[in-house]
Design goal:
By secondary structure, the protein is an alpha/beta fold. Helix content is 45%, strand content 16%. The chain is globular.
């Protein structure tokens, strides 16, 4: 089975998964992360310098490594951007900064072909350059994953309705943004933030959709699992690079 289909099926079933975040838009970085044993690599199109062309190259590099599935975080719920990214053929998209139920509905519709959505029809890489387009549009082939981030007060207020949206595949908590929006930046063990996490996880469980989040340090990985999530992004390439460099530099200081 194609890696995209296997990954999508297992994510939708709630299997525990671990991924990596890619900020540096170079295929070597994508290939190394995909070869490291992660289930998926999320290429960042929001907080990065990556162009659409660089994202496309990284999607191909992850696929070429044949071990992980490529996801792409778009910069917003803009349906034009979502369409252009989906045409590249990733396993799915992560949509950040969802502010309301209405915006979440529009984001999901942007990932689906008519009549369920408003995604434009074109024979690009996602459909084998047109060879599989008819099956894609008719819904005969598995659709790309649609993952919405819950990281605003508006999304939190409507999280039960968002989780239940037809066509939504998973939720993803952005801890930094959510804590900032709650007026408690970085207070991940605070009562207000933990109540928010519990609400998101409960909404996902009730709707039978998986929920994930990101851990910025190795120690944080275990703490994130304790939130009751189904999948975790275990750090990013910038952190790996900085920590690896510091470890080598510190070893030199011991000589």
């Amino acid at each position: 089975m194609h890696i995209h289909e296997a990954f999508a099926r297992e994510l939708r079933q709630g299997r525990a998964m671990v991924g990596a975040w890619q900020v540096v838009g170079h295929p070597v970085v994508a290939e190394l992360l995909a070869d490291a044993g992660f289930d998926f690599v999320a290429v960042d199109g929001e907080h990065s310098e990556n162009t659409l062309s660089e994202i496309a190259t990284c999607v191909r590099a992850v696929e070429a490594a044949d071990g992980a599935a490529p996801l792409v975080r778009v910069s917003s719920a803009d349906r034009v951007e979502i369409r252009r990214v989906l045409d590249l053929g990733p396993a799915g998209v992560i949509v950040p900064q969802t502010e309301s139920l209405a915006e979440a509905e529009e984001a999901v519709r942007a990932t689906r072909y008519p009549p369920a959505g408003v995604r434009g029809v074109a024979g690009r890489r996602s459909s084998g350059y047109g060879r599989d387009l008819t099956a894609d549009v008719r819904g005969e082939d598995p659709a790309a994953l649609t993952i919405l981030q819950i990281e605003t007060a508006g999304a939190l207020d409507a999280v039960e309705e968002i989780a239940a949206l037809e066509g939504l595949d998973a939720l993803f908590v952005g801890p930094a943004d959510l804590s900032a929006r709650l007026g408690a930046f970085g207070e991940f063990e605070g009562e207000q933030f933990r109540e928010a996490i519990d609400r998101v996880v409960a909404a996902a469980d009730d709707a039978d959709v998986p929920v994930g989040t990101i851990a910025g340090t190795p120690d944080a990985v275990e703490r994130r699992w304790e939130w009751g999530v189904d999948f975790v992004v275990a750090g990013d390439d910038l952190t790996y690079l900085a920590d690896g460099a510091a470890a080598f530099r510190d070893r030199f200081d011991l000589l």
